């Protein structure tokens, strides 16, 4: 079928997002191949039509009026496993439209370590390098070998190494300096054969102590199961019928502040703030990450606080949820109330974490 017969118009976007919110895309196209990507982006380029690349819709808030442009849904599939250069590692080459959680399950079933703590995260492979997906002590940046992408400026396919992606906390060149320039079509992950699971995160260590006998070394499969349990307890696992999971995961980033500000934050809250290292690099040593969820609660906004059908999740303060018929406007009004409260109390400006479309 030709491109134009496959091109859809006025397609409602809400069903393509985990928030289940958002109006229509003026044009909508599902790309099943790299050729489709080239053709669809050329079509938009020649007409000067704004382009938005849609993956799993799990980190996205679409405006109620929708998007007056072309939404290109990346529906590229296929995963191959290459032995790589050594016997200790394998390269998983996954097309951007592959379901992320299914890929994690497959790597663990094949006894490869490196993404086991990232189980249960909704979305597709293509989104993982863009926001450098991370949870429970792992970030994809530590295992990404290469990212294949279509460069919309030079109109060629490129393959970028991890260093060229400029990864940082919830960030990469794809969502910062080069936002909108690259369309990810494939990601290669370098995973360790028979490697041990990563057990760095306190919540995970607690779950292991609770569920396994003392001294037992958990398997990758066990870690995946425990991570899924923790995510579910926080309403961060997509479970049919669970009202807390109609969300975009964390709605705010955890702010990074100078260590020297901790005393002032403690004074404002009248208690010690929890805080975590930002990373291992020496230049990050003078800063700490503070959980935004904690700052929000200390600012007087508890779990379950609602504005119409938009609410703070009843299980995790960092997730805003759509309780039924919430509009994007309601979600943003609630977010504004939260950022104002945190700013008034602590002088910290929270940054939104999901991508906004059509605002
Ligand atoms: N906390 C609260 N109230 C809550 C939840 C948490 O005060 O309702 C405080 C507690 O002090 C807790 C701390 O926040 O110890 C950390 O909580 P949690 O372990 O749940 O992690 P988070 O910092 O809230 C981040 C990521 C999550 C990721 C988890 C686990 C961001 C923006 N979020 O959340 O990622 O799953 O760590 O690693 O960095 C996402 O990006 O969408 C996401 C869900």
Description of the molecule:
The chain is of the alpha+beta class. The chain is about 25% helix and about 25% strand. α6 (about 200-210) crosses α7 (about 220-235). A hairpin with a 6-residue loop joins β6 (about 80) and β7. It folds into three domains: about 5-75, Uridine Diphospho-n-acetylenolpyruvylglucosamine Reductase, domain 2 (2-Layer Sandwich); about 80-195, 2-Layer Sandwich (Uridine Diphospho-n-acetylenolpyruvylglucosamine Reductase, domain 3), CATH 3.30.465.10; about 245-355, UDP-N-acetylenolpyruvoylglucosamine reductase, C-terminal domain (Uridine Diphospho-n-acetylenolpyruvylglucosamine Reductase, domain 1), CATH 3.90.78. The radius of gyration is 21 Å and the shape is globular. The longest helix is centred in the last third of the chain and has 19 residues, at about 330-345. Uridine-diphosphate-2(N-acetylglucosaminyl) butyric acid binds near residues 236 and 274. Uridine-diphosphate-2(N-acetylglucosaminyl) butyric acid binds near residues 234 and 353.
Strand-residue fraction? 25-35%
Radius of gyration: 21 Å
Give me the count of strands: 21
Q: Based on CA inertia axes, which overall geometry fits?
A: globular
How many domain units? 3
Q: Which architecture of the largest domain per CATH?
A: 2-Layer Sandwich
Number of helices, counting only DSSP H or I runs of 4 residues or more: 10
Protein structure class = alpha+beta
User: Helix content range of the residues, please?
Assistant: 25-40%
CATH class of the largest domain: Alpha Beta
Terminal-residue CA separation:
33 Å
Q: Describe the largest sheet.
A: 6 strands, antiparallel
**What is the overall pLDDT average?**
96
CATH topology of the largest domain: Uridine Diphospho-n-acetylenolpyruvylglucosamine Reductase, domain 3
Question: What are the distinct ligands in this entry?
Answer: uridine-diphosphate-2(N-acetylglucosaminyl) butyric acid
| Unreliable stretches | none
